[in-house]
Specification:
By secondary structure, the chain is α/β, with parallel strands linked by helices. Helices cover about 30% and strands about 25% of the residues. It contains 6 helices and 11 strands. Helix 3 runs parallel beside helix 4. It is globular, with a radius of gyration of 16 Å.
């Protein structure tokens, strides 16, 4: 196994898969901090783990003016956490938010806390497709997390330069990770907080213990 330094370079895409309790949120925070820049966190489950991120601004509801002020805060904030209200969590609404971010910001990171929340019938919405396919030249970095990779479209994985796997209970999910990476290392069940990092361009896998966050 190669020991590549796990980092999501600007304009790159990464997918992070792991069951509830595997340490996804902890690892996602570490990866965002490692990668630098301003990150917009779309947090439909209101995951509390992001509350301790440094220089974070939490916004309740999808308030576009507040999001813009936070992103353009000239260094005051490093993270803009969007906690949508219950009536704002439909796949269509969240995908429209992703589209608006794609159309209005450059050189930012976008983190989606559950990828299948912006899928409809297994298909990625137009906003997510636009960000993943046309956001590279705008410096838009992407990290998407999921506890069920089998529910996430092949398109999302096909656009990723990095694929990260943590503990997954269901064999179907582990088989999908093997399918996406071509690596048998993803077939086994990992202990909580341990993870595998697959670099698509290098075709290399590295294994890591818990991150120091």
């Amino acid at each position: 196994m190669s020991q590549l330094t796990p980092r999501i370079n600007p304009g790159k895409r990464a997918v992070l898969a792991g069951r509830t309790g595997s340490g996804k949120s902890t690892l996602a925070k570490w990866l965002m901090l490692q990668s630098g820049g301003h990150w917009i966190i779309i947090n439909p489950k209101w995951t509390a783990a992001f509350d301790d991120l440094p220089n974070a601004n939490k916004i309740i509801g999808i308030k576009l003016k507040d999001i813009s002020k936070s992103v353009f805060s000239e260094g005051k904030y490093s993270f803009t956490i969007i906690n949508p209200k219950a009536d704002e969590t439909s796949p269509d609404t969240l995908d429209l938010l992703v589209m608006w971010i794609h159309q209005n910001f450059t050189h930012v990171g976008v983190y989606v806390d559950e990828l299948y929340s912006i899928h409809t019938n297994g298909r990625a919405g137009a906003g997510l497709v636009g960000l993943l396919t046309r956001g590279r030249e705008l410096g838009q970095t992407f990290l998407g997390a999921t506890q069920r990779p089998a529910f996430v479209s092949n398109f999302v994985f096909s656009e990723a330069e990095y694929i990260c796997g943590m503990s997954l209970n269901l064999k179907k999910d582990r088989e999908r990770m093997v399918e996406y990476t071509g690596s048998p290392h993803f077939a086994g069940k990992l202990p909580a907080y341990e993870w595998l990092w697959y670099d698509v361009n290098e075709d290399a896998v590295s294994k890591w213990a818990a991150v120091p966050y």
